[in-house]
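Subgroup meeting minutes
Present: P.N., E.W., G.H.
Scribe: E.W.

1. P.N. recapped why we're keeping a running log of single-chain structure predictions: easier to compare across weeks, and new members can see raw inputs and outputs side by side.
2. G.H. added today's entry (129 aa).
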Amino acid sequence: MKRGIAAAIGAALLAIGVLLLVLPGPGLLLVLAGLIILASEFPALERFVDPVRTRALRAAEESVSSPWRIAGSVMAGLLLIAGGIAWGVVRSLPLAGWSTGTSLILSGLVLLGLLVWSYRRVRARHAQQ
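Output recorded in log:
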């Protein structure tokens, strides 16, 4: 049962992360989270964790490397949240409804949360140096 739940959660995070590689959002970090969960139950996947971790953490650092990037990421998160509200309220939009709206809102919140995490991580590393 535990293995099945871990596989379902890991696969969902991995799939959402892959989608967010082309959509606005923290794709690599979600791919990493999915791989870590899957690798805990399926050891053959451990070989993929370190390369993805390296790229995901580098991308997280780059996302907060300048005020313009931070502003762009914040704007993308706010636009996702606003789009989610619009998709929930405006019935004439394609795939309108709160299921689509909620997923957009959650994507925006995850993006903003990971942006804060990335900023704190980079700031803490610079404080140590």
